[in-house]
């Protein structure tokens, strides 16, 4: 939900439904309570998995309950790995009711998370109004100049930086916490996450219902290639930095692992998908990550685990296990159009990457004045 900010011309700010300035203290309590419930859920989730896996040993091999549990676990795993193995990239389980649940708004208002539409994005929308899906001119009773994005193409939105958990990406694009469907009517959101989530019992169903896909080339390509999925208007959110960028998460810096990333630009050209640069101010401040410095022996071990095994090894803390209550401001830039090139050359890929980095850097420099005045330069490694 959006309202026009009077202090920052041209910037659209989220509008919190049902809460005014007089109820902010109550709202903080509700948000904190939701975070406590969330932590309890995770504890219960892992406890439930533990019970399912160890119950047969407690009951004994001859107990009837043991047999029922074993058969149930075997059937679930068999269905997951054999019959339903392709759902991690087809996104067939998207559940709008779960995405729109008020739980998410209360959860992410703990920080809070806010989505800001840049001047460049608004200008792009105005130039493409005839192709845009109408409906976002009046959001939650507030007039705005943004009229959505054309739904006759697909988009690859790149979120920076990763931070520890990417709360901003999940809030803005993985749920309806800030009103994605009202801001971008006609677009179908997909968020690429670690493939391990799709191998975890029960958790797999939750992330699929939210519109998540595995963060691999085949899965992302399926949603972006109109010939493969037979559809347009898909917006796929990825975090290019991945696990390597998590190790660079610092409260006082913005370090992006982007110099060695070329696959996303090749994919954008091969599928003809527009690239959307997105920068998040505050994502790295909600947790403090303890990781070895680049070039040290322990850091080389951490890099090895990430590159070879996809496993991150580091320590972190916030308010205990809960994050700090610090605002996360997600600024969405203008799409960079890409013509479909089935076999792009290295020069074409390098040119697109150069244009993308220029747009991302410009976005960072322009909006850090509003959301993180003490931020230094945007560093890319």
Automatic annotation (TrEMBL):
<dbReference type="GO" id="GO:0004144">
    <property type="term" value="F:diacylglycerol O-acyltransferase activity"/>
</dbReference>
<dbReference type="InterPro" id="IPR007130">
    <property type="entry name" value="DAGAT"/>
</dbReference>
<dbReference type="GO" id="GO:0019432">
    <property type="term" value="P:triglyceride biosynthetic process"/>
</dbReference>
<feature type="transmembrane region" description="Helical">
    <location>
        <begin position="65"/>
        <end position="82"/>
    </location>
</feature>
<dbReference type="Pfam" id="PF03982">
    <property type="entry name" value="DAGAT"/>
</dbReference>
<protein>
    <recommendedName>
        <fullName>Acyltransferase</fullName>
        <ecNumber>2.3.1.-</ecNumber>
    </recommendedName>
</protein>
<keyword id="KW-0808">Transferase</keyword>
<keyword id="KW-0443">Lipid metabolism</keyword>
<keyword id="KW-0812">Transmembrane</keyword>
<comment type="similarity">
    <text>Belongs to the diacylglycerol acyltransferase family.</text>
</comment>
<feature type="transmembrane region" description="Helical">
    <location>
        <begin position="29"/>
        <end position="53"/>
    </location>
</feature>
<keyword id="KW-0256">Endoplasmic reticulum</keyword>
<keyword id="KW-0444">Lipid biosynthesis</keyword>
<dbReference type="GO" id="GO:0005789">
    <property type="term" value="C:endoplasmic reticulum membrane"/>
</dbReference>
<keyword id="KW-0012">Acyltransferase</keyword>
<keyword id="KW-0472">Membrane</keyword>
<keyword id="KW-1133">Transmembrane helix</keyword>
